[in-house]
Amino acid sequence: MLRTESGRGRQLRAGAAAALGDWLLVLHADARVTPEALAEAVEAMGNREVQCACWPLAIEGESAWYRVIELGATLRWRLFGLAYGDQGLLVRRSLYEAAGGYPEQEIMEDVVLIHRLGRLARVVRFRTPLLTDARRWMREGPVRASLRNVALLSLYLAGAPPARLARWYAPEPRDR
Q1: What confidence score (pLDDT) does residue 176 get?
Q2: What backbone phi and psi angles, to 5 degrees, belong to 29?
Q3: What is the pLDDT of residues 107-165, one digit of tens each?
Q4: Which of 14, 47, 111, 140 lies 20 to 30 angstroms, CA to CA, from 100?
């Protein structure tokens, strides 16, 4: 077991440092990789031209709001090349290290890293999505959670400090 101080960026950085392979696969705890998504990843790792990839977002559940959120994630990717951590990340260790790895910040660490990676290499977007548990959207409400995420990203890009933004992004309570 690996223990670190709190802070998602710090924890992801420590996990990557402890990993042993030539590739890093970073997934949120609420993400599920289907056999088809895994097959795409295996194929990509065998392709010397692929350095980095992420998956489309798919939220488990029937709500039409989840499909709207997924569409928003697709648009964010197509317009800005920006994938959040809940879309997973498959990256060659050498590229990860060249990009400086995850920054030790509480929030938007995934935004920083994907931006750095995109400057160094093409980030491939797989066809098959990861499946993400809808629990957080169910608890917070999909509209409220999405608007909060857009506001946080906008504030971050405008220069707001991550530590301040992290206070507005309350972590999901742990199951007891």
Answers
A1: 38
A2: -60, -25
A3: 999 999 999 999 999 999 999 999 999 998 899 899 998 899 899 999 999 999 998 99
A4: 47
> Which fold is adopted by the domain 8-134?
Spore Coat Polysaccharide Biosynthesis Protein SpsA; Chain A (3.90.550)
Confidence of residue 8 (pLDDT cuts 50, 70, 90): confident
Q: List CB contacts of 39: < 8 A, sequence separation 6 or more.
A: 128
- The tokens describing 16, both together, are 């990557």
Contact by Cβ (8 Å): 59, 138: no
135, two tokens? 């629990």
In angstroms, the CA 87 to CA 56 distance is: 6
How many CB atoms neighbour CB 56 within 10 A? Answer: 18
Domain boundaries, the chain: 8-134
